[in-house]
Design brief:
single chain, alpha/beta, Rossmann fold, 8-stranded mixed β-sheet, 13 helices, disordered N terminus, Pept_C26_g-glut_hydrolase
Amino acid sequence: MWNYLLVPILLCLSKDLPLVKAETSASLLLPSQRGGKSSSDSLSSDSSCTILDPNLYYRPVIGILSHPGDGASGRLSNDSNASYIAASYVKFVEAAGARVIPLIYNEPEEILFEKLELVNGVLFTGGWAKNGLYYEIAQKLFKKVIEKNDAGDHFPLYAICLGFELLTMIISEDRNILESFSAADQASSLQFVNNINIEGTVFQRFPPYLLKKLGTDCLVMQNHHYGISPGRLQNNLKLSSFFNILTTSTDDNNEVYVSTAQARGYPVTAFQWHPEKNAFEWGSAMIPHSEDAIQVTQHVANYLIREARKSQNRPPAGKVLDNLIYNYSPTYCGKAGKGYDEVYIFTQLQPRI
């Protein structure tokens, strides 16, 4: 009867989950254990497979926007034109079944936007840059994402940490809208907004027990000095008409900020936290690495790529291969004991289109 899920109901149902699991596991049988077939039949393989949905694209590619610098405060490259992508974002995308093309923010715009035509979604990473060319390119990419969706292509955008802050500034058209928070190097929980409908959101396929633990356990990594409070977002007409607030979190000073938001009419999801770090970064002792934390990373990655498969873009295979991030080599920087473990650094602007 209900065509939507409510978080409180799911959390309530999760109390009975261990019993349900026990009952279910006891009744699960392999095909060869169900009877009705001879032992020889049970050894033969069924050649029929479920027909894949022809409307979905099973070779999705995600464009990740590079960030100014080398990701290591100049320890790896002092080239003033250098930019980087932390390898954890690449692994995050790959873990859900997609490949990556780097969108190098300071390469010629005609090259950058040609690359955009080779991907099925975009990811804005964390970082610090909020002005200059980087801001302008992020603004133009966001506009392109909206245009693609308005034209009928399902084209998702993930905005993580700085990415969320940039969207807040771009959508509100206010460079000073962000607020200061004390949430650097901090593991936290996520508090769902009361009676939030999670159907169609990044949380829809989270199992009930994990939804419950998100609210009680520190399963996500925060690392930011800025953000936006629920009140300020809701009081800004442009932001409140674009975003639904899904979760909030609390900083070290008990100040509440928006930690997850999703666009109302577009496949755009914004995270103030870092879903990629749990599984793929080791530079901070605060990063959660429990099995539940890893499941959070996997579910969030799966949602992005599930959305990207809906894209109608079918880029030429040769051009994709020429521009994949595999044309570059990551640099290991984890021995410093802080920051990223690996980064892709882009210094020579060599067009690959």
